[in-house]
């Protein structure tokens, strides 16, 4: 048993609870999650083990120590979980993700080993959809820019701020009509927008026009809302041709993943006024955001927080626990990850 080989586990393990590895970035607030999970599992968190919290064991050493007994890992946020991690965990059978996207997990390598992968299912769907709409209204009506204008004392000096543009009747192109995209579509339809979409496949039950080509969708849209999963096929799906087709007045909202958009091209298009504006919650190299965007008032920036509310964290936490319990009980998993399902 690993506990006998390993004083680090023995020191803390006074119960028969199953071991669970928490794979997370160093600075991530997951208190509700770990609090709930610690009632059902013996948590192994490399960041909280000796030699000291500020000098944790290197992850590889930590994993090698605990590897033989670990059947399940919780991957927190979008912390990469790669084939190298998998190699260190010969007994692994479940990777339970806390995010809806699984692009940071080597799902193909998991599948080859018969390791199940679960994700956040519907836990974040509504909050992300709300946020996409919020970013769009902010860009169109210049809410954040107006706020900066007032706070900087310019109103009495320069008078009215630049007018924004109306949301109603805008032609919205949704890239990825999955869980999130569908909710965005329903919300924007209620504002009187016209919806069309691009997806891997046409969805016969959907009342919106389908475009198999993103460029064609962009040229028929005032706004693109990007909400598909990041895969090899969708990497840089928003490239310079798509931005050109979207045009000088066009607005792009990205609540999917940074790498869905060719960020260098996006910066160039925005700087040169070749597209009208952008609302971005995700970036190619988070938490680094291209500095050129900081001075552009037609761009709204957000630190990958569309998914997070206390309510969505609670739903996600319950779902992660349900997946783990089902796994250890040998029952069907509530939210197995499937491609193209964000
Ligand atoms: O970006 C967040 C998620 O995929 O849940």
Automatic annotation (TrEMBL):
InterPro entries: D-isomer_2-hydroxyacid_DH (IPR050223), D-isomer_2_OHA_DH_cat_dom (IPR006139), D-isomer_DH_NAD-bd (IPR006140), NAD(P)-bd_dom_sf (IPR036291). GO terms for biological process: photorespiration. Pfam families: 2-Hacid_dh, 2-Hacid_dh_C. Residues 133-306 form the D-isomer specific 2-hydroxyacid dehydrogenase NAD-binding domain. Residues 67-336 form the D-isomer specific 2-hydroxyacid dehydrogenase catalytic domain. It comes from the Eukaryota. Keywords: NAD, NADP, Oxidoreductase. GO terms for cellular component: cytosol. Its EC number is 1.1.1.79. GO terms for molecular function: glyoxylate reductase (NADPH) activity; hydroxypyruvate reductase [NAD(P)H] activity; NAD binding. CDD domains: HPPR. Belongs to the D-isomer specific 2-hydroxyacid dehydrogenase family. This is glyoxylate reductase (NADP(+)).
